[in-house]
Automatic annotation (TrEMBL), chain A:
Organism: Infirmifilum uzonense
UniProt xrefs under SUPFAM superfamilies: HSP20-like chaperones (SSF49764)
Keyword line: Coiled coil
Name this polypeptide is given: SHSP domain-containing protein
Coiled coil regions in record: 2-29
Amino acid sequence: MEEWVRREIEEMLKEFKRLRDEFARMEQEMLQPLFHPEEKTVVPLYEVRRESDKIIVWADLAGVRDKNNVDVRVEGRTLKIEALFSKPFKLEGFTFLREGLQRYKLEIPLPENIDLDKIKATLKKGILEIEIPLKVERFKIKVE
Amino acid sequence: MRAEWIFSLYEEIPAPSLVVIGLPDVGLVGPIATSHLVKQWGLRNIGYVDSPSIPPVILFHESSPLLPIRVYGGYKGNDFVLVIHSDVAIPPQAIHELSSFLVSTLLEKKAGRLFLLGGIAVQDRLNIQTPKTYAASIDPEALKYARSKGIDPIQEGYIGGIYAQILKEAFKNRLNVLALLAECFLNYPDPGASASTLQAFSKLTGKDVDVKQLIEQEEEIRLKLRELMKRTMESMKGTGKEYEYTIPALYV
């Protein structure tokens, strides 16, 4: 194939790609207000307390009644919490809440020495408590 | 330079025999309580408190403008009740000015008894069904009366934040003030604690306050006020709250 033909084809392909990207961007912009899952998601109020042998995490999941709607998992060294509201939370007249809130999402980095098998989570009065034991090496040192 | 503070009323009022203050602090106990009290007693918005020291915000409710720190008033029985309620966290640098301004204004208005409704954060709040309310006052007689109604005084330790400064100013200026502080969450809005302070307030004034709605809608209120709680936590840094977990040197 002659060089100029190859260059022409390359230019055409580049133009196709640019058009395809532009359409994708327009589509995303137009549909975002209708299908933007992140807008319906909030980070809950939370607190992390580190003790010598455990980490305790509390997250206020007000509006989440059913513990089956709470997903707690550890992925790598991150604690991930996702919870679905019992019903979408909307307040009449607040433009920033037009979409309503549907879920909580929270990610918390963890240290390396967590004891994965002994993590406990409980939901009480809409507050999630997660107790994460730490594997701690203990040495007793003689005091002289 | 001191910022200018304004206490503006839309109408003439009699000397209030009861004044109730609810300002954002731990668990938002105060503003939740005063907001509920205003609705329960059908009090009217009769004015506002304002200053360049508070965040430049205005609220709209049913399309009508509201200032963030509002004054409500009305009769409950024979008593004229004045409520000061804030929907904005008070910045640390404004605490001294606002406290002395409120105390001098209330002295000018010949206010009777002043109640500060608020919370005292406890670690084990999640396992407390009905939070206990404690009283703190500069007036031994007020504390004696609280005790006679089953409300124990805070025995030892620091109180920090805006209510501590109001207590200090009231002490210096001899204004009769009683803080009612219920056990509460530190950083989650706590309507259950607000219900407890209102019940204590009701015992001390002999005036009914129905708190059923606060208890029933606890989670919904927590959800609605989560952002105000976040702003309040940011504002609370450096307001002396950290001293509440400190043993003073006087115990040495």
